[in-house]
Amino acid sequence: MKVIPTIVTLPPDAPLWKSDPFRPLNRRAIDAARLVAGRSRKWSSEADPWVSHYADYLRLARTATEQGTEPPGPEFAAIKVAHELAQRADPRRWQIEARLVGGQSDAEIAAICGLTPDVILWFEALHFNVRQSLRAWAYILMHCVGPGRLIGFRGDELAQFWRWATLAAGPLFLDRLIDALHTALKPNEAPTLAVYLRHDAAVALDLQAFVASAVLPHFGPAGKAWERSTLLMREADASPDPDRRAFLRERAQKYFVCCARACLAGKPLPKFCRPPARTAKRSPTAASNVLESAGARQTIPCCKPSATTWANLSEGPQCRNRPGGSTTGLHNNAGHQLLWREQAGRSENVAQGQ
Question: Of 273, 274, 281, 278, which is closest to residue 244 (Cα–Cα)?
Answer without folding.
Answer: 278
